[in-house]
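Give me the 3D structure for Plasmolipin.
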Amino acid sequence: MAGLPGAARARSASPGSPPALDGSFLRSPLGGLMGAQAVLGLLVWSLIAATTYHLHAAYGWVMFVSLFFWILTVLFFVTYLLQLHQKFYMIPWPLVLMIYNAVATVLYITAFVTCAAAVQPTSWRQWDYNRRAAASFFACLTMITYGVSTFFSFRAWKGLGSNAATSQVTDHA
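Predicted structure for Plasmolipin (173 residues):
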């Protein structure tokens, strides 16, 4: 749990205590990446939604992937921001987050490729072309942020970056 914010306090939080805002989560790499994923994912699905995406089946997939992972990312973000993951201590959160980020990365790769391949420069509606091209760009950036989150989640799941001596000192301090 080395890469997850609040990992040192995970064992000391009582399940009956009210949720508290975790400011250190917002400054952590995981918090910053989740915030970027939420903003970029919002841009992807809102740009696609602003076009006539229902006329092209490919954009239905892009819309599904971007909206589905945007909702889940916001839920994970709120869960970690309010330290609700500490209330459900029986769930292996580092593993869940790593699997989530890996699946999001793979599906965003497919969404990015689909979106980029379906952009037609000869579109009769210029604003649809611009929005779809921008959605492809932001889908690529979102895919990259999920890939980086997968890396950090993997390190947190494996416990890389900390050792038993430092975690014992911070737990008892």
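Residues 2 and 159 are 5 Å apart (CA to CA). Let me know if you want a second pass.
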